[in-house]
């Protein structure tokens, strides 16, 4: 421009508007960029084919989905918990509940007045099953159920040992082991069935616990188990959600790369994959074969990788994603296994994927199906150990020189 410097002439003399006010609105980006500015992390949303079904219409035949559905039902019959094992676990739960109910009895009127002057008497508010057994997603071969014991007040550390000793004397035919670190007690029968009992109290009372009580962090963690069981019972009413959760749990047992997922993450993944929403926001349940393919597609696209939005954990107070507790190696393995299984499934190797045929080396060796070569995905994450440099050597001071007169 004649008689001027043209666009951006403010950059020629940055001191005219001060060190932090160059150009329009401040810095070079047009925004104020002074010291102390905090960056905001925005997680990315992996590609979900269900959210853009109009732009990407389905091309596979319904016959393929029906074949996958038959294989899913066939596998579900094999992995569903047998009635015999279910009855054994239910009896263990009832026996433990009966014993625990006798530990804390309601005090008499005179005893109650004396105790109220000192402190609120201890009692059990609730005993319930949680986890896969309560959610009916436990698969055959797993002989452990989880129980949540909710007390009226936070348990003290010395009371925890007495509690475990009482349970040992009341159940002489069982093997009892306790862990103060996790506020849990394991009860194992002679035939190998186990009940893992977790101890907590109401959320408001956890805040009042001190150094003499069990750790707050563990008490809150155990308390969330009850919230998860309640959420699942209210939001996963459809039996197909439980069916898909059992199939994914079977994958988690059979394929080592999926073992980094927690059982809770598997159940949330089943609920997310089965749920479909239209443009008006109305929810509907997808067919199980389509939901299974959707789950593998999401995991393949990085649904549980670092930076992904993933699935928000409804039991967490801060709304974090369920996969934030996974290690980076586990996240990478989950993505790799899902990619390989999806290729094999879509190429017609579903019977190997569901364990209906020999699947040895399925994720480690090259597969040839209908003259198509399928290579397993390779891990990307490499763990690098931080090496602490050695401190610099301190030079020794020279010996003093004696001065002669």
Q: Would you give an account of this structure?
A:
With 405 residues, the chain is of the alpha+beta class. The chain has two domains: 47-79 and 239-383, Poly(a)-polymerase, middle domain (Orthogonal Bundle); 81-100 and 120-235, Beta Polymerase, domain 2, CATH 3.30.460. It is 38% helix and 11% strand. The protein has twelve helices and nine strands. Strands 1-2-5-4-3 form a five-stranded mixed sheet, sandwiched between helices. It has a two-stranded antiparallel sheet with strand order 6-7. The protein has a two-stranded antiparallel ribbon with strand order 8-9. β6 and β7 form a beta hairpin. α1 crosses α8 (239-254). It is globular and about 70 Å long. Keywords: Activator, DNA-binding, Nucleus, Transcription, Transcription regulation. One of its GO terms (biological process) is positive regulation of DNA-templated transcription. Residues 37-405 form the DZF domain.
Enumerate the spans where pLDDT stays under 50 for 5 or more consecutive residues.
Answer: 1-33, 114-118
Largest sheet: 5 strands, mixed
Indicate the overall shape.
Answer: globular
CATH structural fold name of the largest domain: Poly(a)-polymerase, middle domain
The CATH architecture classification of the largest domain is: Orthogonal Bundle
Main location: nucleus
Subcellular location: Nucleus
GO molecular function, one term: double-stranded RNA binding
Protein name: DZF domain-containing protein
List the helices and strands and how they pair.
Blueprint lengths: L61 H18 L3 H19 L7 H10 L5 E7 H5 L8 E8 L5 H14 L4 E5 L4 E5 L5 E8 L1 H4 L9 H20 L3 H16 L8 H12 E3 L5 E3 L2 H13 L27 H19 L3 H4 L13 E3 L2 E3 L31
Pfam families: DZF_C, DZF_N
Keywords: Activator, DNA-binding, Nucleus, Transcription, Transcription regulation
GO molecular function: DNA binding; double-stranded RNA binding
